[in-house]
Amino acid sequence: MASTETPAGGAAPVRPALDTPFRRFLSDFTDSRLAVLAAILLVTIIILAVFAPWLAPQNPYDLAVVSIFDARLPPGSQSMDGVTFWLGTDGAGRDLLSAIIYGLRISLSVGVASAIIALTVGMIVGLLAAYAGGRIEGLIMRIVDIQLSLPAVLIALILLAILGKGIDKIIIALVIAQWAYYARTVRASALVERRREYVEAAACLGLSHARIVFRHILPNCIAPLIVVGTVQTAHAIALEATLSFLGVGLPQTEPSLGLLISNGFEYMLSGKYWIAVFPGVALLITIVTINIVGDQLRDVLNPRLQK
Amino acid sequence: MTDAAPLLQVRDLKTHFTFRAPSTGVLPGPKRILKAVDGVSFDLAEGEVLGIVGESGCGKSTVGRTLTKLEPATSGEARFRGRDILALSAGAFRPLRREIQMIFQDPFASLNPRLTIEQTLAEPVRIHGLARTREEVRARIADTLVKVGLDPKVMTRYPHEFSGGQRQRIGIARVMIVEPRLVIADEAVSALDVSIQAQVLNLIKDLQRDSGISMLFISHDLGVVRHISDRVAVMYLGRIVETAPKAAIFEKPAHPYTRLLLASIPRIRPGRQPVADLGEPASAASPPSGCAFHPRCPLATDICRSTRPDPVDLGNGRSSACHHAGQLLGEAA
Question: Which of A117, A97, A90 is nearest to A252 (CA)?
């Protein structure tokens, strides 16, 4: 075996190539063990949510499977058919573990969908403000200020009172409550970028405004957008849970984590803690892991914090 | 138009900026006007290099930025091949952008860090329809890279992999690839190490000579301007105070400000008098009365304090905006 080893005192050791941006990003990101752990958990949660129909022990919406006689069983008990309910069952006799996995699916998709739409809207508005400047910028940024001065829950509550229930309605409400954060973030970094010489060089070459904005300015504003997007996704999930808990979010037929907590809440005082607590823990873990990953992304992607 | 007509004629160009003076209380401060460029006129012949020198803040960069329409002109005209480019709309000016190009100062800021060299150089080629197929575009990029002294293999790399001098070569390639007729070089070598400056300067000079480009070379560095220019214009507080062929201006300055600038060049020669102290230039926001240079001028008389001198033609392609220009020339003779 000795023959295969690098001879001592030979050429300089070959270092792994660290100079591609992605490799450097990866090595910086893995500096924090907590962040790595959170990222692994987050990926697990996402896989659970995406493949819920195959991974959940039971389809909690299938009335043929759910039996009312299994209602409010404590964690670890067995059904009449001999199936174990590891986290117990809820008031309708659904396996709580399955309900949580399906709830995650709804919570995550609402959060991610609203974050993506809000990001797109905010990004375009923010870029427009930064690039156009003058009155257009003033007008847009005042709207953003007004938007940010109102609590997001309040805006969403009012909107849902007008729009009614449903996944599409809650996504609209979340987008309206959150686009302003993205607009402000994008404008701040686009303002810096548009003054750089490469943007002036692009203008001198005769490129169109659209090309300058989307090919030159936008790619250099992506890093803060990713960070804000991650954190705002967590906010969107929390906001949706809040609204569902208050009973204005999603209908009972599509129970998200917030609705599960709300449903279980009435049994809290009778000692049946698990119906509300386990969905709550699932929500907590989801939001905390997203936030940890988001914080680490911010540290890694912010050039000013780099070593 | 005859061949003798200059490529670019700038007449009484003015670029003013409005800003608010700092507020002293609750109300916003009064609006002020900064006359960055205040009546600049010059001609630029085909294939000629005109150096524009002056201290920081004299408006020399604003002249270049106005001519490329990065800043809107307040008044005046700039005729490029007889067409006033300042009056053109952004859309009408776009086709002309290929012919009027700019080399920027900071090689670290002037390249988009997210684009490869190939992407950066392909953009102008595509926009101006200079090549159709991917192969043609790539061949043109390779040619241009060789012209600026770089290996065509570098086109797959990103700007951060290059040194300042190499980046500036890429910036020059981006300009040369569209075969412009007029290049405005705004402090094109000022950000580079002295050892690299000469190389890049020679490259610019060679490219300019080979393709007969007209050039406006803006710099605060008299040594650099002397090396590259055919004629030199000296700016002070938004105006050109002296224009002359290179040899004449360095031998016999016809304006006291030019004299002071020349005396301020540090020389490594023991036993000579210390470098002249330029003192502080007056503020462009509140220029002095009469000749703007009079507070610093050793020759200033009453007329300088009251009347602003206009440029006077002194023959042999020289002009000077000084009441005492004749005296200065006579003295030096």
Answer: A90
Q: Are B114 and A203 an interchain contact pair (Cβ–Cβ within 8 Å)?
A: no
> Closest Cα to residue B257, out of B244, B272, B242?
B242
Instruction: Report yes or no on A27 lying in a domain.
Output: no
Q: Give the model's pLDDT for residue A270.
A: 85
Least confident among A267-271, B24-28, B112-116:
B24-28
Is A18 a domain residue? no
d(Cα B183, Cα B173) in Å, to the nearest integer? Answer: 12
B-chain residues within 8 Å CB-CB of A207? 123, 127
Q: Give the chain A residue nearest B161 (alpha carbons).
A: A19
Q: What does the angle CA A48 – CA A52 – CA A54 come to, to the nearest 5 degrees?
A: 110
Q: Where are the beta strands (DSSP E) in B161-304?
A: 182-186, 214-219, 231-236, 239-245
Residues of chain B above pLDDT 90, percent: 55
User: Residue B114's closest CA among A188, A123, A21?
Assistant: A21
Q: Into how many domains does chain A fold? A: 1
Q: What is the pLDDT of residue B161?
A: 87
Among the listed ranges A290-304, B121-135, B184-198, which one has the minimum average pLDDT value? A290-304
Interface subset of B 82-111, CB within 8 angstroms of A: 94-95, 97-98, 101-102, 104-106, 109-111
Could you tell me if residue A277 is inside a domain?
yes
Place of tokens 């001879």: A7
Q: Quick one: pLDDT at residue A9? A: 39
Range of the domain at A279: 32-62+95-302
Helix, strand, coil shares of chain B, percent, nearest 5, are: 35, 25, 40
Is A7 contained in some domain?
Answer: no
Q: Which of B105, B112, B127 is closest, CB to CB, to A206?
A: B127
First vs last C-alpha separation in chain B: 39
3-state secondary structure string, A231-257?
HHHHHHHHHHHHHHHCCCCCCCCCCCH
Contacts of B101 in chain A (CB under 8 A): 204-205
Q: How confident is the model at residue A10 (pLDDT cuts 50, 70, 90)?
A: very low
Q: Number of residue pairs across A and B with CB atoms under 8 Å?
A: 53
Residue A226 belongs to a domain with what CATH number? Answer: 1.10.3720.10
pLDDT-above-70 percentage for chain B: 93
> What pLDDT is stored for residue A22 in this prediction?
79
Nearest CA in chain A to B98: A205
- ipTM for the predicted complex comes to 0.84
